[in-house]
């Protein structure tokens, strides 16, 4: 597994890097058979160190974890425990579902736009009906089943996920509802 370890305004020494590589490899290899790459970022906020880790698996899943502590090693250990717990829960749900998949998840390219929000009064009329685009980026839309899409959404901690349905070959959306349940939008073609 390729691991990128970076520090935001923090010097990351060789001892910490070897500890991170060994700890992350151990945690991920227990529950995920084929990790492709991972990234660990350390930063500091006041007196606390923050560790954020992201691991991409060959099945298309992306696991993310974040932890804080007053010591940098403790922050990484907490983050590693959260990642391990997350992967353990999802492996239990998978029940060897991905062992049949030989190829990684197929991804479809798409554009993502960030639109400027209106800070004016809700009663005032906008000057034009065209929204102001703040940023335009490329994103990937995975080809998944509905169950896999829910797992991807929960692993990423995202409120919504757009995906291409494997069975119907159309775009679908899963999202977290206000009542805590998962909603699924499946438009008819």
From TrEMBL:
A Pfam short name: Ribosomal_S30AE
GO molecular function, one term: ribosomal small subunit binding
Domain Sigma 54 modulation/S30EA ribosomal protein C-terminal: 130-183
Any GO BP annotation: negative regulation of translational elongation
Record bears the keyword DNA damage: no
Listed NCBIfam families: yfiA
Family: Belongs to the HPF/YfiA ribosome-associated protein family. Long HPF subfamily.
Subunit structure: Interacts with 100S ribosomes.
Protein's job: Required for dimerization of active 70S ribosomes into 100S ribosomes in stationary phase; 100S ribosomes are translationally inactive and sometimes present during exponential growth.
Protein's name according to its UniProt entry: Ribosome hibernation promoting factor
Organism (species): Pseudooceanicola albus
Record lineage: Bacteria, Pseudomonadati, Pseudomonadota, Alphaproteobacteria, Rhodobacterales
């Amino acid at each position: 597994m390729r691991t990128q370890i970076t520090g935001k305004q923090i010097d990351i020494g060789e001892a910490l890097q070897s500890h991170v590589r060994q700890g992350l490899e151990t945690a991920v290899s227990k529950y995920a058979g084929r990790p492709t790459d991972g990234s660990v970022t350390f930063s500091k906020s006041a007196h606390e160190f923050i560790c954020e880790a992201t691991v991409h698996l060959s099945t298309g899943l992306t696991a993310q974890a974040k932890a804080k502590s007053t010591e940098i090693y403790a922050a990484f250990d907490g983050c590693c425990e959260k990642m391990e717990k997350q992967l353990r829960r999802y492996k239990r749900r998978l029940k060897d579902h991905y062992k049949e998949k030989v190829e990684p998840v197929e991804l479809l390219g798409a554009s993502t736009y960030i639109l400027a929000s209106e800070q004016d009064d809700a009663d005032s009329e906008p000057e034009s009906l065209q929204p102001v685009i703040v940023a335009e980026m490329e994103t990937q839309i995975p080809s998944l089943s509905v169950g896999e899409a829910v797992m991807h959404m929960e692993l990423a901690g995202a409120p919504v996920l757009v995906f291409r349905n494997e069975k119907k070959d159309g775009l679908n959306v899963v999202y977290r509802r206000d009542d805590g349940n998962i909603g699924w939008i499946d438009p008819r073609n």
